[in-house]
Write the structure tokens for this entry.
Amino acid sequence: MVLASGLGGAFPVLANSFPAKVPVPADNPMTPQKVALGKQLYFDPRLSLSGDFSCDTCHRVMGNGSDGLPLSFGVMGRVDVPRHTPTVYNAAFNTVQFWDGRAKSLEDQAKGPLMNPVEMGMPNAKAIVDRLEQIPGYRKEFGLVFGQKDSISLEHVVQAIATYERTLITPDSPYDRYMAGDKKAMNTAAVAGMHDLHTMGCAACHAGMMFDNPGTKMGTGFFQKFPLQAHNQECVAYVHKYDLDKDPGRFNVTKNPADEHDFKVPSLRNVALRAPYFHNGSVASLPTAVRIMAACQLGKSLSDKQVHDIVAFLGDLTGKFPKETMPRLPQTPGKAIMMQVA
Amino acid sequence: MVLASGLGGAFPVLANSFPAKVPVPADNPMTPQKVALGKQLYFDPRLSLSGDFSCDTCHRVMGNGSDGLPLSFGVMGRVDVPRHTPTVYNAAFNTVQFWDGRAKSLEDQAKGPLMNPVEMGMPNAKAIVDRLEQIPGYRKEFGLVFGQKDSISLEHVVQAIATYERTLITPDSPYDRYMAGDKKAMNTAAVAGMHDLHTMGCAACHAGMMFDNPGTKMGTGFFQKFPLQAHNQECVAYVHKYDLDKDPGRFNVTKNPADEHDFKVPSLRNVALRAPYFHNGSVASLPTAVRIMAACQLGKSLSDKQVHDIVAFLGDLTGKFPKETMPRLPQTPGKAIMMQVA
Ligand code: HEC
Ligand code: HEC
Ligand code: HEC
Ligand code: HEC
Ligand SMILES: [Ca+2]
Ligand SMILES: [Ca+2]
């Protein structure tokens, strides 16, 4: 609470609209060729052990950037993926990646699923490189993007994928148009919801242009305890019903007891399309997620009107999704390069 | 053999190039809106029980129209998909669908995977319709394409998907350019391979513009026994090594003992990209598949040069794949519509 009101005062949380530029690390500049290669890799199931799982299997670019499931299925039908899949849209703006912030960049992040036994399941970097080396089209394209010698490496794979992800951004929401001066872009309910978000304290955590931090630097991470008001009576009921206190969150990363149940504050951009909600995907509807936030983070019970207005505002944070062409995945004429897994 | 040479004489097998038009049934005319809707449905994992399997999961439009696996994984990690996944590219030209020809049209075919327990696993037509009815974008689009009343039905779902599939065709291969008069489009090895295919008897079965039948009518099917020369010594060894005599093929459909081990003759268009080969996906390389065909269908052993030439020709049957835009899948703001399966 102290933190919430403190930050709420310190930062002009609703003063900006969608960032004009996506942050790009100095050692991985964006080029159209790298974006194109990254897109191929992002959609290529040959990057998984079984040969049928790509990044897109869990993070659907044609949909909301997730798969809409409470918990994803993993490679080879595994059902032990421990956390809900967040969207890849606007992940480029996250200062750290994963619910617990354990990756400092999109580049670092992408190594996770590739070699996570329950996600894409590749045994090691060499297996990934070997798979790609067998595909002449990739040998050529990595050479063009990264230089001719030994250009297929895990480092380059994740650099290309991260570069593609930096194109998956959704500007031009009704809220952005409203902030740019088009006062008709949001209706009165949404405007009321915007003010509720500010005055009630939501915007202390859901701050800044992406509604996820009050100006935190890339690589740093802005974490908050969830549930913060664990003794609030309404919250207790939610925690029980939706199993919200099982995941130790950032504690898994730092082993610091102070970080127990700390989670990265997620952006509210496109949140209306991102059901189900929270790190375990247990809450199916946005109005319920809003009530839970009010009870568990602010110790407040909301009126139906407040919920309605806030949900209306959150709906106006839905941006324009990019129109994309499909990549063509390079082939290997005359032979199958998959392992015989079935 | 009788059949092979008989047909070989009767039909001008190499006299035409890629069909100028795709066959369209009178009761399902193609419109751009229907194609767009069909594309969304084709890529939408919400058409599967688990919510993470679409047609594209097994039939990758960005790749070769299959998944490159000997046998696909089914919904919820099932590994009992009994046959190798054929490509969806140019399936519009098949006179019947499936290895055993059990569907007479693309429309009929699409019902199969949707409700097949090991593929997409939907329990019945009602479950599919209910799922789609919850998505406002689909209610609107089905209305526009099929008329406003009760427009979401299994019949319309498969009509739209089939319409999209009719756009997945690959004209303009080197062979087509060669046939159109560009004699430089194929090299001497490929030209020799083309003649081998003709004189050797392959083209008796792999006949016509798609190399799959000698002019068979849509809905009819052209089936051949595989292995036909089951006593040929080289064939016996292949059958044993690649487990080629386990699947009763068309017998499953007709229960006629004469149809045992009969399979639809597959098109050779894009076959170089379609490894692994045969109804069980057991053969990883095209040269081996060619040797097996010669031994098991013609009772012939090929020289290395013959294999080389035939493979060169088959490589020149690779057409141009369509450049496609990605569909945007309609969303359901504020709520998750998946069942909680994990
Ligand atoms: C089997 C499902 C699955 C696959 C495949 C998968 N992911 Fe993820 N992804 C997840 C889950 C679950 C999380 C959250 C894990 C956590 O926070 O502990 C996640 C987190 C992320 C994040 C962090 C987003 C955020 O807001 O913190 C990014 C970015 C991401 N994935 C991109 C990728 C890329 C790129 C690939 C392919 C190389 C990929 N994912 C493959 C399930 C998957
Ligand atoms: C003290 C910090 C804090 C405050 C205050 C706060 N939130 Fe959150 N919010 C979080 C954190 C942390 C999460 C992620 C929780 C999790 O899933 O583990 C979150 C998640 C959410 C989500 C779900 C996002 C998703 O994709 O699953 C919504 C919606 C949301 N907040 C809205 C609100 C609203 C509306 C308010 C005010 C009523 C609010 N929040 C107040 C920290 C806060
Ligand atoms: C789990 C994997 C899987 C999924 C999902 C799947 N298919 Fe298939 N498909 C197959 C297999 C395996 C066959 C061959 C089955 C047989 O012949 O008995 C096949 C056959 C076909 C054929 C016949 C092609 C030919 O040459 O005979 C078409 C067309 C097709 N599928 C289209 C689709 C469409 C459209 C969808 C979605 C509605 C779909 N498939 C979903 C695996 C799948
Ligand atoms: C008597 C009919 C017949 C003859 C002659 C024949 N084929 Fe086939 N061909 C088939 C059938 C039937 C299949 C499908 C077998 C299966 O997978 O069950 C097939 C499959 C193939 C395949 C694999 C296609 C795929 O996608 O898996 C190739 C390649 C092929 N034939 C090439 C040839 C060549 C080259 C010759 C001549 C040396 C030839 N065929 C002669 C009937 C024939
Ligand atoms: Ca979500
Ligand atoms: Ca194949």
About this structure: The first helix of chain A runs from residue 2 to 10. Chain A is about 40% helix and 0% strand.
